[in-house]
Amino acid sequence: MKKIILGLMLFTMLGISGQPKYAIKFAALAPKGSTWMNILDELDASLREKSNGEFGFIIYPGGVAGDEKKVIRKMRIRQLHAAGLTGVGLGAILPEERIFDSPFLFRDTTEVDYISNLLFKRFADKFDEKGFVLLGWAEVGFVYVYTKTKVNSFEDMKEVKMWAWEGDPVADATFSSLELHPIPLSITDVITSLQSGIVDAVYAPPLAAVAFQWHTRVNYMFDLPIANAMGAVIVDKRSFAKLPEKYQTLLVEESKIYFARITAASRHDNATSIEVMKKKGIEVVKPFSEADMKRFQESGKKARRSLVGKLYSAELLDEVESALKDLRKKGNK
Which residues are bridge partners to 22 per DSSP? Predict the structure, then answer.
């Protein structure tokens, strides 16, 4: 019955939007109606308009095509052609991309922009070697921890039943450095696990916490970002090569515009989402003592170093940390 309903939904969607001659089947976890998907819909409309209806997306939002690992497998056999992925999915293709998700690495969006611009061409070349075209970054935002019970100290963190994205080495390293033992689950299982009490603490950017309705099952937000979550949009290189050259150029140029808008909108909506959660009664807990803050920073350094040789090289980590150090000396100008 679920397959029949899904089929009818997709049939209806295609009947309304029309399938273009050159169709890119696109999947993402972001739910329909979210900022991320709304701007992607606008990109699709622009592609169709500028190609006279010949070129556009067929979009599968909200994880209907499966989690990110499943989406990548479908891309490799060309059941899907493109995807908007978080660091977990991107890292399954190119592990060193997870440098962006390293715990306590970035302090603000200026630093994120600086490093993402610094590394874009290098990573685009590496994704190309893996068989994918990197169209652009689409930042998810700074990640916060949300809990059912109030956490007032570093030691209190050890008492929560923390969720961890199943198979995510960065989450494993982060929570290990914090001396936590999280419960690994697929992202699609989080809301039911919060409802049943399997977990009582989760982490996500505020916009994602609201979009996935996780905020309806927690009471507190810890006001210290543990990481910045980077997202990106990639296209299967073989599918991209089959497009007429004029549509390859169109996709690349339009993507630059719309993915920059996604990042800007995500940052705005993340701030707005915090206000939404406050109105729902979620209490924002301010950072711990100075000693606890120092322990968080030291844990971040430990976690980042523990991933050397597993995800990225020591040289890459040194380069990024050195670039950030120099930027901070200049006052982030």
Answer: 55
